[in-house]
Design brief:
Number of helices: 15
Distance between the termini: 56 Å
Low-confidence stretches: none
CATH class of the largest domain: Alpha Beta
CATH architecture of the largest domain: 2-Layer Sandwich
Oligomer: single chain
Bound molecules: NADPH dihydro-nicotinamide-adenine-dinucleotide phosphate, L-homoserine
């Protein structure tokens, strides 16, 4: 006899709709391959008209969250509403009622993982969130189940599709940031309020989850250095290409001993690095483990169908486990006592300084770099307006030394300002 698993969906928008479509269209296939009859029996949404859009029978409409929490026939609840509240309260209710929860909500998991996991343990239920990071790309399960043999040294990714789309348009078509953003909004990649994506919050939420799993310790998103793409100019893109780099918004996590680096910022990526070729709205995560060496995970990081695919994989996974899966580290939400999350990381830097085009200016600026231990690899000059822009590529330097040098350069008489500072992958 086939096992029947009743599923509820809270929030039937883009991802919830994709999830419903897969569970419905691939129902017989899943029954045949997984031996389970998955049935969506309750759907909650603020707007019941949305159920009609997906052909969901009216009998499935839940009038309130408690109707799902109290329904003993439902064992798995999918949360695809988004946001922190009421999603957190709703999920905790389900977990405490002993129901496994599958969510795509990276903001919620990154901010309240600890509380959600506590509720899951109390209710004897599982919390699964493959869809929260990198859409359809199975990176979470890989970190949890396929790479345990390794100390993960680094995880470097393009994990936000909206910003990758914008930067790709700026690079390949010479578009301005504003025009590329407008196009991304028209195509539905960027939201009307694009702040979470373009300011790097979305990538920081995801990096917090991925780095915590990769390094087996809490990497709170508040500890992640974050810088978005709003200051990237056409000139940065052009100079980058001339120097052999493409600009990408990278999420970078590294662990060396008990020191962790976690940062999100625009980065010059050498054109021959596999991440440089990841274009448009695609995502990729490059992982290095001490035994497995380099791996790259690539695919669609968003959209109804890819993200729905990740949700359904969690539904299947949850339904087949004998016991819930919990974190393999002390998931308190805080940095562990024996771990340092360092903000003073080391990198190569591209620094463009706008100056008065006069004798001695270059020497003054390079003098400041020397004073702060920042060694220059190459220098070029762009003419423009009444002055010039000097573009420096540094050797590896520390963030704190570079910041001190920037402060001193901006205080020089003939110097206008540091117009760009972009870290270089390498
Ligand atoms: P949508 O806005 O398309 O869908 C959310 C749905 O939930 C809407 O129908 C919304 O109604 C409904 N909803 C919101 N709050 C409530 C509530 N309190 N009670 C009942 N229904 C509610 O969002 P997405 O599908 O795009 O995103 C859902 C989640 O998936 C988010 O956490 C997002 O970060 C994540 N995600 C999204 C991806 C994507 O490609 N879109 C990719 C990966 C993750 P209303 O519109 O009226 O508010
Ligand atoms: N806004 C996100 C992105 C959606 O652009 O990648 C997927 O999490």
């Amino acid at each position: 006899m086939k096992k029947i698993v009743n599923v509820a969906i809270m929030g039937i928008g883009t991802v919830g709709g994709g999830t419903y479509e897969i569970l419905t269209n691939n129902h017989d296939f899943l029954m045949r391959t997984q031996g389970v009859d998955y049935r969506v029996t309750k759907v909650l949404d603020k707007n019941t008209d949305r159920l009609k859009m997906f052909g969901i029978p009216e009998s499935c409409a839940a009038s309130c969250v408690d109707e799902i929490a109290q329904d003993k026939s439902i064992s798995i609840v999918v949360e695809t509403m988004g946001g922190v509240e009421p999603a957190k309260t709703f999920i905790e209710k389900m977990l405490l009622a002993g129901k496994d929860v599958v969510t795509a909500n990276k903001e919620l998991v990154s901010k309240h993982w600890s509380a959600l996991e506590a509720a899951a343990r109390k209710g004897g239920a599982g919390l699964y969130f493959e869809a929260s990071c990198v859409g359809g790309v199975p990176i979470i399960r890989a970190l949890q189940e396929s790479l345990q043999a390794n100390h993960i040294n680094s995880i470097v990714g393009i994990i936000n599709g909206t910003t990758n789309y914008i930067l790709t348009k700026m690079t390949e078509e010479g578009m301005s940031y504003a025009d590329a953003l407008k196009e991304a909004q028209q195509l539905g990649y960027a939201e009307f309020n694009p702040t979470a994506d373009v300011e790097g919050f979305d990538a920081a939420y995801k990096l917090s989850i991925l780095a915590s799993l990769a390094f087996h310790t809490c990497v709170p998103y508040t500890e992640i250095y974050r810088e978005g793409i709003t200051k990237v100019t056409k000139a940065d893109i052009k100079t980058g290409l001339e120097l052999g780099y493409r600009i990408k918004l990278l999420a970078i996590g590294k662990r060396k001993g008990n020191v962790i680096e976690a940062r999100v910022h625009p980065t010059f990526v050498p054109v021959d690095h596999p991440l440089a070729g990841v274009g448009g709205s695609f995502n990729a995560v490059y992982v290095n483990g001490d035994f497995v060496d380099d791996l790259m995970f690539y695919g669609r990081g968003a959209g109804a169908r890819p993200t729905g695919s990740a949700i359904v994989s969690d539904v299947v996974y949850a339904s087949k486990r004998n016991a819930p899966l919990y974190s393999d580290f002390d998931n308190s939400g805080n940095v562990a006592a024996d771990i340092e999350v360092s903000k003073d990381f080391k990198s190569k830097y591209y620094i463009a300084v706008s100056v008065k085009d006069a004798p001695g200016v270059l020497a003054a600026v390079t003098g400041v770099f020397a004073n702060h231990n920042v060694s220059i690899e190459s220098v070029s000059q762009r003419a423009g307006g009444t002055g010039a822009t000097i573009c420096f590529l540094t050797h590896t330097a520390s963030e704190s030394d570079v910041n001190k040098a920037v402060g001193d350069i901006e205080a020089l008489d003939d110097t206008n300002k540091v117009v760009s500072l972009i870290r270089v992958l390498g």
